[in-house]
Each structure stands twice: as C-alpha cells, then as structure tokens.
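User: I'm preparing a small set of examples for a lab meeting where we compare how different chains pack in three dimensions. I only have the primary sequence for this one, and I'd like the structure in token form so I can line it up with the others. Please keep the answer compact; I'll paste it straight into my notes.
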Amino acid sequence: MPRQPNVLEPIFSTFPNDSPNCEFITTPVLHLTKTQEPNTPYPLLACVAGPIRFRYSPQTWSHDRVKRELYQPLETKFGATSSDPRYPPPPSYEAVRLSMNNGDLALFAWESDGSGAYWLGNTETPKVLWRTDKYTFDESPYPVARWAQRVLLAELTETEPWLAPYRHVAWFFLPVFFSKDGRDTSRVFFRDHAAGFPDATREQGLQFYDELLKPGILDEYRYTTATKLGTSDRLDLVRMRASMAELNAAKLLFDSGYSFTPEVELDSGYTLDFRLADSGQLIEVTRPEPPARRRAGTAAAAIKETVQGKTGNQLSAHQGAVVFVDCTSFRDDEWQAIRAESPSVGYRPAVVYRMRPEKPCEGYIRGQPGLALELT
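Assistant: Understood. Below is the structure token output for the 376-residue chain.
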C-alpha cells in the first residue's frame, strides 16, 4: 500500500471550495450514576467502535465487484442506495457513495489500474474487508484523505447546518462526528450542551472552540484528542466535559507562549496529558464536577476530592508534575466562592482556573509550577 503520512493543508483546502461488523476496541466507557464521583474506578468495560478510519484493500476492484461484494450485502441487511459521491474522487480513482436506510454512510474509492482501494464508513464492514488494515486520514494518501473529508464535511454541514459556520470544530471532530457509535452523542454534546459550558449558548461554545482550534495547535494529535470526546452511543456528559478540559489546557498553554506534546506515555506505565517542549515539565489535567452534581458539599471540597483521584496514581508516580484543575463546569456563584477563598487542592504545584467564551481565563496558582500563565 502506498502509505504516506501527511499533514493536511490548512482547513480551507479540506473544506469544499464551492458551496464481524464494525471494528471494535475495548475502551472504558464511563457512565456515572448519581452517586458516583468523577475519577473513581469503573469496573465495567464496554466494546465501542472507534473513530472513523480508512480500510485499505490491496486487491483489484471494479464496478461489478463493488456491487457484488459491498453494495449487495449492505442492501440485503439494511437497505442501501449506491450513488456518485458529492465530489469526484482524485484522478485515477473511481468511487461510490453507499447510504443505508438506517442512516449509515460509506465511501469506497478504488484505483482504476487495479492497484488498491479505500473504504471509509460508519456502517457494518462488508466481510471482504474484515482483515484489511486501518489508517487515519493523516496516514493515508493525501488526495484520497482530502477528497473523503470534503465529502464528509459537506454531508455534515448539510445535515447539521448549525455546525456550518464553525469549520475548525467540524473538521477537527470529523472522525468522531462520523463514528459508528458516537456520531449522535458527539453532535448532541455540541448542539445541546454548549460543548460543556454550563451557562453559554450553543453559538458561544462553538465559537470558543472554533477559535481555539483555528491555529492548528492540536492538528497533529487530532485522532487522539478528538476521540477522547467519545465514540459511545450513550451520552456521558461527565466524560465529554473532561475531554474538553484538555483542549482548554492546550489553549491556556498556547496563549501563555508554551509549546507542548499531548498524551505523553511514560516509563511508569502512566500517560500524562502534556509535556512542555522546552522544560520537559509534565502536566496532568482534571476537571471537577461542581458540588451540585456530586457528594461534595462545597466548591472547594469538590476540587480537592477530584485532585485526590489523581494523587494516588499519576501524580504520585511523577513528583513535580503540575496539576491543572479546570473549573469550567462551575457556574458563576460556585467559581466566585473558589476565587474568594483560593483554597488548597491537596497537591502542589497546582493551577486552578475557569474558562468562559469571550472572557479571559481566570485562576490562581498554588505552589511553584515554574510557569508564567495568562491568568487574571
């Protein structure tokens, strides 16, 4: 396979210029009960489909074979329609769009000279493709990746017109917005829950993250970061808000002039959320739920309990790591109580902060993290 890692061109080149079964991975799916605290162990594991990725087939394909081995099995099981994609495939490729009656979608492009083909879908994978290798957009040939993303972005903004003005959000989370299990819940999170802001409009939440993603600070880590939003078919707001905390931390670091690497795997067996490029400083992020959603009676107790969930593992194994405590889920009165007291979180060094659309990041520091952060 002509595998060639690529970094996609700026977003405007990806967007249109003119207006058995799925692959399963074993992932902890965190569903809090009313009495469960964040950062406590979860004994159950669930099988969920991962983010949408290409499957590469090195075999020779033709229209007849596509109809026989891809379209007909899907049509028999789900009811399916085969049509031309919204945009033509790259030169030397032929392609079809397969839409299922249950809302699933697949694209299939094959090289005219018979040297290989690419499948991209959030439906049941036809048996003939079960043992093929899987690749992200960046790991696939750029012309194919760009074409597929143009098609999916056009599909997305047509079915979800509220996303159309927020091109960077749509592009960055595309692997999740079209995942098999997470496509509905991920869209609901942005559409109905303001991307995790408790007191902002949908438009404010989307604009905040669109501007955060615009500089491309997380593009290289798109699949890792975006997938944390979740590919589960159950809406888990606690986990989804926690995943957005890592984007918030990336914004705070970037705005403060720091370069970083997210998702750092360490010899200890733990993965910490960030390592700074210059100093090597490690950072772990946590996002407490406010007291109204947990047993903790006060806002200060809520953040302390959440940090305690980290001190017994990642932070104890990496003395000197900084904990970022993201209080973005706290409403104004809860946050003001914290600002007034500036309580200890039970660990140092710590940075406690809250973000809001159209406002500077507010917060305070406990200990000596050795960071000059843009906090008010």
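A couple of notes for your slides: DSSP finds twelve helices and 14 strands in the chain. The two ends are 52 Å apart (CA to CA).

User: Perfect, thanks.
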